[in-house]
Amino acid sequence: MENKTICDRVKEIREQYGLIGTAVDPLIIAQENGIKILEKSNLTINGEPVSGAIIKKNNDITIYVNAEDSKVRKRFTVAHEIAHYYLHLDKNKQFVDLKRNNSKAPMELEADEFAGCLLMDTEHVNERYEKAKSIGLSNEGIVSVLAGIFVVSDAAMYTRLKNLGKF
Ligand SMILES: [Zn+2]
What are the boundaries of the signal sequence (predicted)? Predict the structure, then answer.
């Protein structure tokens, strides 16, 4: 990465597409960039079950999402694949990403960080965290309330708050 952090980059993208507030819709970014989104039942790529994928062929870019996943999971998958579009999709090459669980590959960690910043904006998370804390919610309660507000999984919100140094 250059000097800019991934969250800085995401902030610019959020502003560019007018994604303001808490429960932003990552599909807007895909639509604005001409990326197709396809939901597939029991999504497998090369015989492997995955929650999502982004595939570039010639100039067509498609994000695949596993239809059986929960709403919050699908949102995170789309945000993760959009991250690959911005961070890793070389203009002249084919690119295939397979979204697996808990991959520790550097590109996957970057994509998850990007998705976290996109769906859980730093300023908004900080603001909501302070509010929830001020009314005396436990850490578990804070995670659950904020996950609902930002329409993400509890696990995703926990990770985001942890990365922001809250826990
Ligand atoms: Zn990925």
Answer: none
